[in-house]
Specification:
This protein is α/β, with parallel strands linked by helices. The chain has one domain: 3-Layer(aba) Sandwich (Rossmann fold), CATH 3.40.50. It contains four helices and five strands; from the N terminus they run βαβαβαββα. Strands 2-1-3-4-5 form a five-stranded parallel sheet, with helices on both faces. Helix 1 links the parallel strand 1 (about 1-5) and strand 2. The mean pLDDT is about 85.
């Protein structure tokens, strides 16, 4: 599965990247804000998104845009899960998280993305 990481903290992004690569993911990019995430979204199957980035509480907006525009599965990554009002079947991982919890959430997001793409008749990525 191809993963987009949306996280402005380089150290956290690196940890997610290492965990995801160990789990067999291909990293398509690391975005630090909404603009970069939307630029890189078409290359991924799933995205792990920090809820609060430097440009504000944009994680949910990014998730909606990536889901509706590209059919990406989404994992919210946050210190405060209460900021995610309606995850719509998306996984929520609370920081700090174990590698196993991150991998489980990525797997769930990939499954949700595949189901969405099949229902919406979108292309299934390899």
């Amino acid at each position: 599965m191809r993963l987009l990481i949306v996280e402005e903290e380089p150290g956290i992004a690196l940890v997610i990247e290492e965990v995801a690569i160990d789990a067999g993911c291909e990293i398509t990019g690391i975005a630090g804000d909404m603009s970069e995430a939307l630029e890189l979204g078409s290359e991924a199957d799933i995205a792990i998104i920090d809820v609060r980035l430097g440009d504000g509480l944009t994680g949910p907006s990014i998730a909606r845009a990536l889901f509706s525009g590209f059919g990406l599965g989404v994992v919210y990554f946050t210190l405060n899960p209460d900021l995610v009002e309606n995850p719509e079947g998306r996984a929520v991982v609370t920081k700090p998280a174990s590698p196993e919890r991150i991998v489980d959430a990525l797997s769930m997001a990939a499954k949700n993305a595949r189901t969405h793409r099949e229902q919406a008749h979108l292309p299934l990525n390899a």
